[in-house]
Design goal:
This protein is an alpha+beta fold. The chain has a single domain (about 5-135), classed as 2,3-Dihydroxybiphenyl 1,2-Dioxygenase, domain 1, CATH 3.10.180.10. Helices cover about 20% and strands about 40% of the residues. The protein has 3 helices and 8 strands. The chain has helices spanning about 15-25, 65-70, 90-95; strands at about 5-10, 35, 40-50, 50-60, 75-85, 110, 115-120, 130-135. Strand 3 and strand 4 (about 50-60) form a beta hairpin. The structure holds cobalt (II) ion. Cobalt (II) ion binds next to strand 1 and strand 5.
C-alpha cells in the first residue's frame, strides 16, 4: 500500500467567480478544469500547481457539505487534502483495520470521474482527508 502524491488541496469558497479571479491573479493562470459534481452538490474549479492542484469548492445546494462548512467558517478556508492511491479498496480496508474512522467505507465517484472516499478528521488530527483513485477514461 503506497500513497502516490497529494492530488489536490481543496479550499471552500463562498463566491466561486471571485475566488477564481483571486487565484487566477495569485497563480497567473486560468483554471484547467471546472466541473459540477452533483453527488457532492459542489462546483469545483481546479488550478494545476506542479504535480498537484488547488481545488476551489463552492456549494450548489443548501444541504451540500460545503454549505455546512461555510456556515461554520463564513470566510471559507482550507477544507480537505486529497491523496492519490492506486487501490482505494485496499487502502480503506487497511485504514479500517488500524482503527481509523472512515466517512465512506466504499468508494463513490468524484470530480474527474475518480473513485473517492473520505477519512474522518476525528482520526487524522482534525484534517479531512480524501483518498482518490483515477479510473481510465
Ligand atoms: Co477533493
Amino acid at each position: 500500500m503506497a500513497f502516490k502524491k497529494v492530488d489536490h488541496v481543496a479550499i471552500a469558497v463562498n463566491d466561486l467567480n471571485q475566488a477564481i479571479e483571486l487565484y487566477q491573479s495569485i497563480l497567473g493562470k486560468e483554471p484547467e478544469h471546472i466541473e459540477e459534481v452533483q453527488e457532492q452538490k459542489v462546483r469545483a474549479a481546479f488550478f494545476g500547481v506542479g504535480e498537484t492542484n488547488l481545488e476551489l469548492l463552492f456549494p450548489t445546494a443548501k444541504d451540500s457539505p460545503i454549505s455546512g462548512f461555510l456556515n461554520k467558517n463564513p470566510r471559507g478556508g482550507l477544507h480537505h487534502i486529497c491523496l492519490e492511491v492506486s487501490d482505494i479498496e485496499a487502502h480503506l480496508a487497511e485504514l479500517k483495520e488500524k482503527g481509523i474512522e472512515l466517512i465512506d467505507e466504499t468508494p463513490r465517484i468524484g470530480a474527474h470521474n475518480k473513485r473517492i472516499a473520505f477519512v474522518h478528521p476525528k482520526s487524522t488530527g482534525g484534517v479531512l482527508i480524501e483518498l482518490s483513485e483515477p479510473q481510465d477514461q
